[in-house]
Amino acid sequence: MNKKTYSIPIGPVHPSLKEPMTFNFEIYGERIEKVNLAPGDNHRGIEFMGRQRNPIQIIYLAERICGICSAAHPFAFCQAVENAAGIEVPERAQYIRVIIAELERIHSHILWAGVAAHELGFDSVLYLSWRAREEVLDLLEYLTGNRINYGIFMIGGVRRDISEEQLPRIRETLEYYKDIYGKIEDIFLNDPTIAFRTKNVGVLTKEDALHLCAVGPTTRASGIKKDVRQDQPYSAYADLNVEAITPDVFSGEVNGDVYDRIIVRLLELVQSIQIIEQCLDNMPSGEIIAEKKLVKLLNQLKKAKGEGVGRVEAPRGECIHYVKLNESELPEVWKARAPTYNNLMTWVPMLIDQQIADIPIVIASIDPCIACMDRVTILNKNNGQKSMLTKKDLHELSVQKTRRITP
Amino acid sequence: MEYMTPEKIVELFKEKFNGSIINSKIEIKTAGLKKNNYSLIWIEIEVKDFKEAVNLLCTIQFPHFSIISDNDIGEEIKLTYHFSLYYGEKSQEISLNLATSLPKNNLKILSITDLIPGAQISEREIKEMLGVTIEGLPDLSNIFLPKDFPKDVYPLRKDETGAVKMVNKEEEVKKVE
C-alpha cells in the first residue's frame, strides 16, 4: 500500500496558538508522523540590545522579555549581576523577591489553566479562571504599582517595601484562593470530559524529559523531581522547605501526559500560597536594598570584574541568566534563557502518533511562552509576491501615521 | 546516591585532563537568613579535550544542560556551557560551568548532541549567531534568524561581521534569495 503523508502547517498565526511559532506536521490519515519546529518568528534580538545598555537599564529590558514571567527574568538577571559583582542582598529584600515571584506563579498557573480549558473547547472555564486570576493581579498592582512588569527588582535588593498595613490585603487574597481552590481542582481533575481529552495524550517519558533537558512542570509531570527552589535554593527559598511536586502525590502514578501536567500546576498553586504565608510569618526587618543611590551603584558595577549566573524557578521552569562584567559601563556578556527554550524539543516526542485534534492542547500543555522578532511580511494579493518591511519603512509609516493624527 | 564534593569533581577533571585545564575555581554562595550554601564550579578547558570532558560529566550523572553562553573576545570566541549536577535532591545541586575558547581562524567544536540531545537548539543558536561550525550537528535551517538572513552577518559577534551594519543600514545588506 502506498503510504502517502500530507503536510499541515500550523502557525505562525493560528487561532489555537496565542503566540507566533510555526509547526509543520506530516500527517498520515489523522495521525501525526513527523513534526518540524520553526521558531524565530518573534525573535527581537533582546540580548543584542542588552549588550548596549548598562546593567540597571537591562533590568527593565529583561522584565519585558515576557509579560507573564516579568518577575522571573529580572530576578535571575539581578542575581547574576550580584553574583558577578559580589553584592549581598539584604534578607528582607530576599523575602520580598520570593513573595513577588510566588504571586507571579499563582497568576501564571491560573492563566495557563484558562488557556488549557480554552484549547479543549471549554470556554466557560476560561472565563471563570481568568476572573479568578484578576484577584492576584490586583494584589500585584497594590504591592508594586503594576499588574505586570512590576518594576520592583533592583540590583542588590528591591525598590518597594511591603508595609505592615499591606499584610491584611495579601492574606485576604490568599484566603480567596484557598476558598476557590477546591472548585478549580474539581473542574480540572474530576471532570470526565477533561480527563478523557487529556489522559494518555501528549505523553513525555521520563527518559525523554531527562535527555531533552526539559524544565519546570513539564519535567516534573514526567516524574523527575527537578525544581531549582528545591535543588539549589536561592534567595529566601533557602529558609523554606520547598519540595518538587510530581503527579504521583495526587494520583499515585506518573504517566507524563497532559493530565499530569494539569495536576502539577494545580498543586503548585497550593504550594505557592503556603510559601507566601511562610514568608509573611518569617519576614525579617531591615534594609530592602544594598545600595540606595543608583549613581553609586552604577559606579560600583563599572569597577566590578567577574562572571555570575542567576537561576530562578520561573512558573514554566528554570530561567537562567549569565552576566560577565569587565570593568566597563556595559556588561561584556548578557545571556538570557527562558524555560520554553529547553522545553521546545519535548514537543516532538509528545506530538508523534497523536491525532490532529489534540495538537492545540498538547502544544499548550508545556505552557509555551514564545516571547522571542522584528519583521512584518507583506504579501501582495495580486501577484503573490512577499516583501518585508525594514526599519526604515516602519519608521516612515509611523511618521505618516503621527502626521495623520496630529496634522 | 553518593555525592561527590565540588573539590572532588574538580580533582577528577584535573586528574583526567591534566594538561588541558586552563583554570578552575569553586565558588560558594549563601542565601536566606540561615545562610545556606550552594556551590558553583568554573572550569576552563582546551577545546581538544572538551568533548571528553562532557563525556566524563555524563559518567557522574546525566547532567542537566541549561545553555551555551558566548563571548567574543577579539581573537577568540569563548563558549561557556552551563550544566548542573545532582538535581532532584534538596540543596544538593552543583552548577558546573565548562568553558572553552575557539580561535577565530578555526571556529570548530564537536557537537555534544549525541551525549545530550537537549543541547541541539543551543548549538544551532551558536552556529547562526556566531558562525561557529558544530561538527556532527545535522545541517538544519536557522532556528531564530529568518531564512533570508545574510550569510556573512553574525549578530552576536563584536567584530566587523557583527550586526551593527544591519541595525543602522539594513537596506545595504545583501540578503539570501
UniProtKB/TrEMBL annotation, chain A:
Q: Which GO molecular-function terms appear in the entry?
A: ferredoxin hydrogenase activity; NAD binding; nickel cation binding; oxidoreductase activity, acting on NAD(P)H; quinone binding
The residues that the entry says bind Ni(2+) are 66, 69, 369
Looking at the record, the residues that make up the NADH-quinone oxidoreductase subunit D domain are 120-375
The cofactor required is: Fe cation; Ni(2+)
Which residues are involved in binding Fe cation? 69, 372
SUPFAM superfamilies xref list: HydB/Nqo4-like
Name the residues that bind Mg(2+).
47
Keywords, ordered alphabetically = Iron, Magnesium, Metal-binding, Nickel, Oxidoreductase
Q: Which PROSITE patterns match?
A: NI_HGENASE_L_1
Q: Which domain of life is it from?
A: Bacteria
Know the name of this protein? NADH dehydrogenase
UniProt lineage: Bacteria, Pseudomonadati, Atribacterota, Candidatus Phoenicimicrobiia, Candidatus Pheonicimicrobiales
